[in-house]
Amino acid sequence: MSALLSNSAPKVSVIIPTYKTADLIATCLDSVFAQVYTDFEAIVVNDGSPDTPELEKVLAPYRGRIVYLKQENQRAAAARNNAIRRSRGEFLALLDSDDSWLPNHLASQMQLFADDPSLDLVYANAALVGDPARQRTFMKECPSEGPATFESLIVKRCQIPVSTVVVRKKKFLETGFFDETMARCDDYDMWVRCSLHGAKIGYLRTVQARLFTGRPGSLGTSGARNLEAYCIILDKLRHTFPLSEAHRKVVDQRAAEVRALYLLEEGKCQLAERNFGKARELISEANRYMHRPTLSLAVLGLGIAPHAASAAMSFWRRVRSGVSA
Q: Predicted confidence band at 315 (pLDDT cuts at 50, 70, 90)?
């Protein structure tokens, strides 16, 4: 049995925000209560979900085994922070309500802390589910290479899937809570800040979770918006934190790269909406950093024959993504 609503504090607090996932949260919770490691409490936060009646019906069989909190809709960062304030564990294990764990996940992660007590945060690989045509893992799409440090997080040499993270609560509190002003990428912002506060980060390449990627409207579906959030995080680092000269150089260089990528994605969005003038302006500005011949041709084409250039760019994107014309 897990450490339920008893007087004894559990070792781990599992933090689960939920919003419009009534159809998925039972799978999530079943995976939590199937864990080999059982010294935990599970805290579910209803973030003002419009499907609350259906959600609470699904949660009814679990209510004796979870802490259930409700709040007005304030996004995932606020929901996680609310749960963390109520948590009793020495460690925090994060899990989104549309994802699930394999049975040995918590045991494997807690073993990492036992093997190396200097670790503050650990994560693992995960299977990406939702697209039956492709068998993918997180680390195949978003590699982790070498030590997970501030620099490797900034340049995305190491990338952390939130639903595999276990972190010492003490280090989390030293770092500060999730930034509730951020609509996206608040988890990435947290990992970077943890590293700045001296957190030692470790990871396993074994698949320990399933991340659901097929939900329409999920936060991971908009490349331009995620890049915009990335720009905001890098800008915050540059202007808020006392970075070393070496760290500032890495952040400044990455900020320029990401801004160019963001402008390019915004240009593509404008192109899809047939706003050719704005698309040409954004793509041209992005290419001042990228210096790509193909983008130079696209800018030229959008100036001379925008409809033909748009069709050519659309065709090229389909070819590169493996989709036939």
A: very low
Least-confidence region, from 112-126, 156-170, 275-289? 275-289
Q: How many CB atoms lie within 10 A of CB 77?
A: 23
Q: State whether 137 and 266 are in the same domain.
A: no
Select from 215, 237, 259 the last residue of a domain.
Answer: 215
The CATH number of the domain holding residue 157 is: 3.90.550.10
Same domain, 93 and 150: yes
Residue 131 has pLDDT above 60, yes or no: yes
For residue 253, the tally of other CB atoms under 10 A from its CB is: 12
Strands (E), the chain: 12-18, 40-47, 67-71, 91-94, 100-101, 121-129, 136-137, 166-168, 201-212
Cα separation, 265 vs 267, in Å, equals: 5
Tokens of 4: 């339920």
Residue ending a domain, among 176, 191, 215, is: 215
Own/partner contacts of 140-146, CB < 8 Å, gap of 24 or more, are 144/203, 144/205
Closest to 240 (Cα-Cα) out of 229, 250, 251: 251
* Parent domain of 231: 224-320
Confidence band of 325 (pLDDT split at 50, 70, 90): very low
